[in-house]
# Entry
Amino acid sequence: MTSTAPAPGAARDPVVAATVDWLVVLGVAAVASTGLGLEQPWDGSGWSLAVAGLALALPLAVRRTRPVLAAVLVGAALVAQAWLGGTVGFGSFLAGLVALFSVGRHVARTPDALAGALPVLAGGAVAMASSIGEEPAELFFPLFYTSAAWGLGRALRVLEQRSAQLRRYNEVLARDQETTARLAVAGERIRLARELHDVLAHTVMVMVWQAEEAEELLDSPDRARESLTNVQDAGRRGLAELRRLIDVLREDELDLPAPELSELPALTSLLSGSGLSVSLELDVPSSAVLPPGLGNAVYRLVQEALTNVLRHSHAEAVSVHVTASAGTLRCSVVDPGPRRTVPRPGSGHGLVGMQERVAPYGGTVEAGEDGTGFRVTAEVPLR
# Structure
């Protein structure tokens, strides 16, 4: 009896459920107490018929919470009714069907639900023993209807179990979708922060460097003017990229500006025109198929590496090599040095940002001292 449990998903209003249960009790009591549909004339008194009707109906008040107990009491009431009046009627049959339906519907385990149906079946068999003995064929219809009542209750329980399971799956799916959306937003924020870092760090460093150069060249107006012009060019380029980033934030779709490998010559020429000689070897055949976004990742890696040269080195020349062959894209930025004793201010996240950019493509970044200078090398498989 400990296996009885409310059916999944049966979180209905308890007031409504109790009202329905008592209406069932009153209906069964009214039918059973009036002797409606009695198989034979009632041998007992009218009071005994009323008591038998109440004994059949009252257990149904606990058919949801104690369905097996209700079935046992209904089975006993069937026997008592037959003993008091020598017959059973339509009310008895109705009480048995409700009890069997409730056992199938509200008992958790199927074996327990089958065992819970036995008291009603046994009580009915005892009450109808005399008529069944005379005509055994009459047993067919009671068995059919009682089995149908129990089976209907069991089917409803299984359906509600599956419905509750689907609701749980939907809740889990909704939480997963919300988590995925949050992760996507966080990823876009990180990507935006990385883009802002690259644009600002590079632009500001170039402008600071050119301003320092202009200050040192004040005795040479032409060269100082050239440095100041480069400061303006770097500022304009940085502002253009910042505008594109800000415009993106105003749109529904976050489609960040993404410079490609084809823009590397413009990047290196800006620095070369400012006094830092940058030699670029760009050998990426048109037949090479780059994964989407890899060109931008390599562009930003070169940009960050050149920014680090301005921060950490006194070098006057830098070499940049970007080649694709044998299914691998290689990029190297070589700073011959010498290194600065005290670097210019910066964020300190450049090397980490480089690795983060190529990691999604299975790439690696190695950075370290190269004689008196510094070398950054990246390799990305083209697959």
The chain has a mean pLDDT of 80. The radius of gyration is 43 Å.
